[in-house]
Amino acid sequence: MAGPKRPKPEGATPHRGQVRRVLDRAVHSVVNGLMYARDGSARPSMGSVPKELVFQRGKLSLFRVRPIADEQYDLGHETHTFARARHAVPVLVIPPLMVRTYVYDLRPEHSMLRTLRNAGFDTFFVDFGVPDRADEGVRLDDYVVDWVPACVDAALAASGARELSLVGYCMGGIFALLHVGTWRDQRVRSLVTIGAPVNFDKMGVITVAARLGVPLVDAVLDRLGNVPGAASSLGFKIMSGTRTLTKYGDLLFNLYDEEYVRGFDTINTWVNDLIPYPREAFKQMVKEVVYGNKMLANELVFHDEREGIDRPCDLKAIACPLLAFAGKSDNVATPGSTREILELVGSTDKTLLPVPGGHVGVVGGSSAPKAVWGPMVEWLAARSD
Q1: How does strand 110-111 pair with strand 309-312?
Q2: Would you list the DSSP string of 42-84?
Q3: pLDDT in tens, 122-179
Q4: DSSP 275
Q5: Fewer beta carbons under 10 A from the terminal one: N or C of the chain?
Q6: pLDDT of residue 374 exceeding 90
Q7: Domains of the chain
Q8: Is 106 in contact with 364 (CB distance < 8 Å)?
């Protein structure tokens, strides 16, 4: 006669639910991997926010994000329109050099432009275009004296507003500061900068590279022309160190998660899709802004060809409210290079907010909506009505 069955040790037989979860992850990993390998999981929707062109001159364009359609509802025999509340002050978003404008609109569910629009802001954004050989002579003066002011004028004309707010990431934030400091533009109600350095003596590897390379920059770029986007992408990867390789291990581990894969694809596409940097603007950036640190010294001067005069930039003249975000792990716009913005401007309402993320993650990473976009919207709303 057989004796009583001995109970199996606890955990010896996997639970069916656990097996199913493992199988589901495996299937999702295969599907997501095939989609990513074939054509990317997010590329088709990058930069897809509904928009309309309101101004164009050459490669320079200004777009307006289309507002969400007003909602209608029936009450009795009448149809009423419920218009979403709009803030009185529109927002103009300025991109950095080297980067395509989709940096602000990575995915429909992960978009700074859509966040601003959904919060009730009349939102505009600048596109400087993709530089080619014809743009080798473009200088920072062209952006500060001509192109950004033209877009400010066009945005105000299109919106019918008397004032607007400027928002910019990295060099886009610097352009916003330089615009107000150069033109003393009182039509700018408030400023938001994201990962925008002002003290270029504290940018680590970039500072060292500028000091070593400044004697050669003219000779090299006179032969090379514009700085290729591929060279800038390589620089980002080198500065990322081992993360350039380990991120693929993280992707493989999280391949079952479609949201993770889409986020990885957008950031990876962005970093590998940088555009050329105009030759003369790059020379000026290296020699005057990084090596000379003239922005911190408040010594930048821009030539106005139309008027035939030089326009000094006085950042102390900036009196509008300022909100500056600084990535805690940013190895490009390091915390040390951003914090002195509070001393540089003359504003009384000014805040520096350290946030999680590196130079890429601070504006487009997974923590950006909660750490950056949300606080930015609240801060702007309080100063826009």
Answers
A1: unpaired
A2: SGGGTT---EEEEEEETTEEEEEEPPPPPEEEEETTEEEEEPP
A3: 999 999 999 999 999 999 999 999 999 999 999 999 999 999 999 999 999 999 999 9
A4: -
A5: N
A6: yes
A7: 33-382 (3.40.50.1820)
A8: yes
Predicted TM-score (pTM) above 0.70: yes
Q: At what angle do helices 243-253 and 258-271 cross, to 10 degrees?
A: 160
d(CA 75, CA 329): 54
Q: Which two tokens stand for residue 85?
A: 């509340």
Average pLDDT, the chain: 86
Q: How many helices (H) and strands (E) does the chain have?
A: 16, 14
Residue holding tokens 């097996």? 19
Distance CA 275, CA 75 (A): 53
CA distance 31 to 14: 25
What average pLDDT does range 233-248 have in this prediction?
A: 65
Contacts of 81 (CB under 8 A, 6+ apart): 70, 71, 72
Dihedrals phi, psi of 147, to nearest 5 degrees: -70, -45
CB neighbourhood size of 308 (10 A): 7
More confident residue, 254 or 351: 351
